[in-house]
Amino acid sequence: MVSTSDAEPSQIGFIVAKTVGNAVTRNLVKRRLREIVVETIKAYPQGVNVVVRALPVSAQASFSDLVMDYRKAFSTASTRLREKAAGSSPLISTPTVDKAP
Asked: Environment class of residue 48 by beta-carbon count within 10 Å: exposed (0-12), middle (13-18) or buried (19+)?
């Protein structure tokens, strides 16, 4: 997830590789994901770019499982983005160096 300027519309993309299943299965997963992200677009109509990568287990997951996983991942990503914007990103750690006397 990346924050963009508030003037730009939000964009959401999907990566559903062949490892998820055949074309019918991949399209089913994409349709489910599109329905799930509608609430994100409504909540953030501008200023957010999101890429959703479907794992192979998403082919067997129920719709409610996909919803819970997406919400959890989006929440984690938005928290990390806010922390990064505040300058205390957990993704980027500064190594500590012990100085010898």
From this structure: buried
